[in-house]
Amino acid sequence: MLMTTLMCGAMSIVMFSVYRSFRREVHGLGHWAAGLLLLVCASLLFGTREVLPPALSMLAANAVLVAGIGLSMLGTEKFYGLAPSRRAYLLILSLAIAGSGWWLLVRPDFSMRVTVFSLLVFLFYARQVQLVWRYGERHFSSFFFGALMLLQAVVVLARGVSALLHGGASVDLTVAGTPAGIYLAVANFMALLLTVGFMTVATRRLQQILERRSTHDPLTQVLNRRGFGDAYAREIDNLRRHRLPLTLLSIDLDYFKLINDRHGHAVGDQVLAHVATVIGGALRESDCVARFGGEEFVVLMPDMPPQNALGVAERIRALLHEPNQAGLPACTVSIGVACQASVMEGLEELLSRADAALYLAKERGRDRIEFDAAAFTVDRTRSAAGIDTVR
C-alpha cells in the first residue's frame, strides 16, 4: 500500500505536468491529477488511525477516497467532450459520506458500510465504462482503458455484493484471508493501471492532435502543404491503378491586400477562414482543399473530369458573391484548372500548370476561371460557346 501511495503521488505529478502543457488540447487531465492526489491523501488518512480517533480518520479517508474516484469520472467525461456531471458527483459523494457516517457512528455495521461504499463507487466506474464504450475510439488504447475500468467496476461490485450476502468478515482488509488479500492486491494494482490506461488514451489523443497540427493550417483548419502532399501521393497511387482523372484547382483571392489594409489583418484572417469554409462546402467528401500560404488555396479532386471541375469552380466563385452572415468584406477569387497529364507527372508540374492558368485569370480581369490548355483538349464547340473560359 505504501508503494502504491508513492506511485500514485508520482503519477499525479506526471499527469499534472502534462495537464499544464496540453490543457487546451486534451481535457480531463487536471481532474485525473487531482483525483490521484486525493487517493494519496486518503491513504495517508487511513494511516492516521493510531493518531486520530479511528472513526474520524476512517470517515475522512472514505470521503476523500470517493471524492478522488469521482474526479476521475468527471475527468473522463471532459476528455470525451461532455459536460461534467457535477450534480451526480456531489450526490454520490454526499450519499457515501452520509452512509459511512450512519453505519460507522450511529448504527455501526461494517458489512453495510462496505456495501454502501462499494455500490456507490461502482457507479463512478460504471459511468466511465459507458463513456469508453459509447465515445471511445476503436483503437487499442480505448480497449485497454475500457477493459481496465470494467475489471475495476466488477471487482468493486463483487466486494459490495459479498459484504451484503456474506457479512463484513469476508471483505475485511484488516483480517488475513484469501478474498480480502485478492481484493487488496487488485485495488492497489488497479489504482496505477487505471491511470496508465487513461494516459494511454490521452497520449493517443495528443498524437492525433500533433499529427493534425503537422498537416493542417491552424487558421483555416484545411490541409497545409505537407498534408496536401500526402493526399496527392495517395491519389496518384489510385490514378496508377484505376486510370481515373485527377483535377486540381488553384484558387487565389483577388485584391486581398486591400482587405488587410482597409479592415486590418484580424478581419483578413476571418475572410480567409470564410473562404476556406465556402470552398470546403462546395466539394465532395473525396476532395481535399489546402492552404498554400497567404491567400492561395489548392483543391485536389480525384475521379473528376476537367469539364466537370468547371462546375465546381463556378460554384465556389458564385458562393463567394453571396452576402455572408458574418458581415465580412466581400471578396472574389480567380481560379486556374489543370488535370494530371500522366502518372509520370509530379505534383510540382501539376501545380505549375494550374498556377499558369490562375495567372492567366488574373491577367484577364480576375474573378474568373481559366483552364490549362496543355492538360486536356477542350471540345471546340464548347470552347466557341465560351465554356472553357468563364468571365
From TrEMBL:
Which SUPFAM superfamilies does UniProt cross-reference here? Nucleotide cyclase
Which residue spans traverse the membrane? 29-48, 54-76, 88-104, 110-128, 140-161, 181-203
Enzyme class, UniProt record, top EC level? transferase
Query: Could you tell me which residue ranges the GGDEF domain spans?
Result: 244-374
The answer to whether keyword Transmembrane helix applies is yes
Q: What EC number(s) does its UniProt record assign? A: 2.7.7.65
Quote the SMART domains the UniProt record gives.
GGDEF (SM00267)
Keyword Transmembrane among UniProt keywords: yes
Kindly give the Pfam families that the UniProt entry links to this protein. Answer: GGDEF (PF00990)
Q: What are the record keywords, sorted?
A: Membrane, Transmembrane, Transmembrane helix
Gene Ontology molecular function: diguanylate cyclase activity
**Catalyzed reactions:** 2 GTP = 3',3'-c-di-GMP + 2 diphosphate
- Read off the InterPro entries from this record: Diguanylate_Cyclase, GGDEF_dom, Nucleotide_cyclase, Rev_trsase/Diguanyl_cyclase
Name recorded for this polypeptide: diguanylate cyclase
Provide the species name. Answer: Janthinobacterium violaceinigrum
